[in-house]
Amino acid sequence: MKKTLQIVYIAVFLLLCCVPMVLKPFFGGAKAIGNEAENEFPKLMDENGVNRSFSTEADAWFTKQNPLRVPLINAENTLRLSLLHGSSNGVIQGERGWLFSEETLDDYFGVTLSPRALYSLAKTVRLTQDAAEREGSRFVFTVVPNKNTLYPQYMPARYIKGESSNLSLLRQYLDKLGVHWLDMEQALAGQEKELYLRDDTHWNNLGALYGYNAVMDALEREHESYNGASYTYRRDWTGDLTKMAFPDSGRVCGQYYFDYQIDSVSFKQPRGGDNAALLEELMGDSEKRDGLIRTDNPSGQNSLYMLRDSFGRAMLPYFVSRYQSATVSRYYPFAVQAGYDDMVWEIVERNLPTLTETAPRAIAAVIDKEPPPQVCDSPDNSMQTDDSAEGSLKLFGVLDKHMLDTESNIYVQLCSDKQTLCYEAFPVFEQELLGGTDDGNGFSLLLSTQDIPKGSYSAVVFTDGKNAARTQTLQTITI
Known about the structure:
Structural class: alpha+beta
Strand order of the largest sheet: 7-6-14-12-13-11-10
Helix content: 25-40%
Shape: globular
Number of helices: 13
Strand content: 15-25%
Distance between the termini: 88 Å
Number of strands: 21
């Protein structure tokens, strides 16, 4: 009897394992969930010979072919989120059914960057502002708060909010360095209506309108505020967190839809036949053609360059309607360019740590600064160059950590037999170029070779502050 039960158990188990492949010819494979990419069956051989990741890739492919995958995920996440009040697939369910992203938990709990990293971040923005203002542009930097920063009351009670966050600590350095920045959290706080989508990581269209008005006020530009503008409110929005936790469940949340006119706007990039349809596509979450958006509007005023993330897409209708020409980019890093009246740098709170991974593309200006007498002759001091971009030269590297304190600035001095040139470098560790990890002691500098007289220069890097020191010559550079 016992042996018979074991056989039956094994048979049932094997039968259940076969169900997905038996159903596939009738129902097809499972749909991609959230931002997942469709995958093809992996190749056993690749350009390097045997594909050593074949088993892992085949397992992932097989998983996505399971027709029961989506309903099983829905069932599992309903159990974990709604009944067990846990988290699943990067999603947390809070009070009143609000959904939050696990990516924001470090900010919520108060896990912060080091003081040196926070200062470096603020200094990076300040140097970008200086470069923009040298080009005659008005500059504004703004951080859109995480959803649970603005609405902590809807987080599960077991999640204890920390006393500080990267954003709260960064404020001090931004103010100290004189950065022209917009405190978006303060601009949004205290509003009677909900400004974020309950099932999404982003703000709703009303929140985006508040954000747009706050940016324009910070730029001190006259603009249409859309006070009293007509809108409809519909429960038809499928949030990105819903797609992650409850795919194809039919769950939706409320969204505001404003009536705005963009008849005078023409899209130069990307191009599309119908303005309204193209704008709807660019405001959606497919993120296929929205890397660089360029528009003309004869009815508008001034020119805009904006670096934005996914929060910026809901503000698109207002910016393209307000400006005579607008360039809205999702391509990091920030690229300071000539010819724009206004430059706006928008980023969401949870992405703040990424700002010190790659320096903005901003040509440095000569400054008057003398190196200290102390010399730090350390093997940890290094410099590399990159002249792949025509007309420019990038100098980057790392310094011995003993040359830096929390608020040290970093400078590069170029000396020839005829002159000495000094520049302030971004306190950025170029992760993609250098590899490894950042200890807060990286630097990066972009020079215009057209602005430097030809010749051979010795390059020395130095710092200020209580640990001020200079290096020996790290490179000899020929312009």
